[in-house]
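Deviation from plan, reported transparently: zinc ion complex.
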Amino acid sequence: MSNKVPEQMKAQVLEAYNKPYTLTDLPVPEISSDDDILVKVDAAGYCHTDAVLAAGQMKPNPPAFPHIGSHEFAGTVVAVPKTPSAAAKSYPVGTRVGVPRRGYHVCGTCFECRDPNNDYEGFSNFCGKGLSNGLSKHGGFEYAVVDARQVALLPASMSAVDAAPLMCAGVTIYRALKRCRLSSGQRVGIVGAGGGLGHLGLQFAEAMGLRITGVDAADGPLQLAKSLGTKATIVDARSTPAGDVVKEIGKADGVQDPANMGLDAVIILPESQASFDYGCKLLKNHGLCVVVSFPENGFNVSARDLVFRDISVVGTLLGNNSDLQEMVSFASKHNVKAVSKTFALKQLNDLVDEYNKGGGGKLVVDMAI
Ligand SMILES: [Zn+2]
Ligand SMILES: [Zn+2]
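Because the crystal trials were delayed, the predicted structure below was used instead.
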């Protein structure tokens, strides 16, 4: 261990479900494997899943209280193992890394881990036995021990506050867009376009050359989606029926047959059935619906859409490590950035209050404040 690492840290913890975070002193976590690196977190995002976890809707997570939250963060490596693994060797002390949630200490032997296409031999962040930062193990609300195989190297030009929201929101929406399998010029819809993932999605989709319809149903997020300066058509679902949007698209594309009017793919970010239904109505025949949210009671899918319109529905989770690194480079190249509001670590409960107001964009703890 480097002697610059203190023994104690300030950490924001959950002590029970449905209770505010408590700022407390805890020992700095210790490296326990040759794949581990200790990261001093410089910025940590707050994500919808943090709210779901705190509400007790992700049981058995967290495994115990007190629990340190945040599963998307960026920081600086401050300690490495005495005999680092090949992956840990790539991130010497002083390296800046971004950390997503999945893939801490995977089992190494299941079919996911043994997939020859994995980024590292014996490592897959889809391993069911791997832990998740901030959920099934402690997260980034200050120092965190993470698995070197799960992190991304950050370019010098990318600030920690810009990098942190990319580690969950960014990689999730980037992967969802890739999952749409569209080529430049095709049409994609993003339902929930002004939220944390959505507003990043508008920017990624624009840089991918897609024609975008962004949908939201609240004033703040709609305003945010419009303020980004993308060429996306932004639709208020409260006042514009999906059928009208489809007709407009048909007109713009010079299409006569209603079955051939609409989007090639749509991404569903909110948890409401109304959002899911709205998104599916925007699809033309043979369109693809990519589901990102996972409401407790699921979505009702219209069997008629599947049978008579040949709509497909797929889900998507975070990408693998190559997707993560690719997303970081893509975001850096195309200047994709979350519109974020920053808070000091000690103001985390103010951040949560702000989150509950639903203004859109991302809320990030900046340790430098
Ligand atoms: Zn998240
Ligand atoms: Zn495994």
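The chain has two domains: 8-154+339-366, 170-315. We consider this an acceptable substitute for the interim report.
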